[in-house]
Specification:
Layout (H helix, E strand, L loop, with lengths): L12 E4 L5 H11 L6 E8 L1 E9 L19 E9 L2 E9 L6 E10 L10 E2 L3 E4 L4 E9 L8 E5 L1
Parallel strand pairs: 1-2
Antiparallel strand pairs: 2-3, 4-5, 5-9, 6-8, 6-10, 7-9
Length: about 160
């Protein structure tokens, strides 16, 4: 005799790393879509990630009110700074240790002592979304002259 397990609500997030068939993707999307604000990260990989997209969908079209209910998350970040030929290269790895996604994480270059923002700064990404347990590395370049003699640092907001 075959017994069925009770229907469970899928988590409100998914990381889709590899999809071989379109119908499999559509089936996964319908399952994810039962949540009030599902988050979806699509990655096209070929050894390394080529493009990457992040989406969120509500059950009702244009209804994203559930985003306001996301809990605040204390992110972990580690920055390594090196100085090369009049430029600072900062590599920051941001990690989400929580069980919920985090949206619109802002990476900002500042002067270490004063906290003043360093402009201009070139970022590989400056607003990121992190799924539960996910880490992301952002590279930042600033001119040494723009630091006003202070070492640069990265602030995560």
């Amino acid at each position: 005799m075959r017994t069925s397990s009770p229907k469970s609500t899928p988590p409100p997030f998914a990381v889709v790393k590899s999809i071989r068939k379109k119908c499999q993707f559509e089936r996964n999307l319908r399952t994810i879509g039962r949540s009030s604000s599902p988050f979806i990260r699509l990655k096209l990989t070929g050894g390394e990630t080529i493009p990457e997209n992040f989406y969120w969908r509500g059950l009702e079209e244009y209804n994203y009110r559930a985003l306001r209910d996301l809990p605040k998350v204390k992110l972990e970040a580690v920055t390594r700074a090196t100085r090369q030929a009049g430029r600072w290269m900062l590599t920051t790895t941001v990690h989400n240790p929580a069980k919920t996604p985090v949206l619109m994480v802002k990476v900002k270059a500042v002067r270490e002592k004063s906290g003043d923002r360093i402009l201009p700064a070139i970022y590989s990404d400056n607003y990121i979304a992190l799924m539960p347990g996910e880490s992301y590395t952002v590279r930042t370049e600033v001119e040494d002259a723009d630091t006003c003699g202070e070492p640069p640092a990265i602030v995560i907001e």
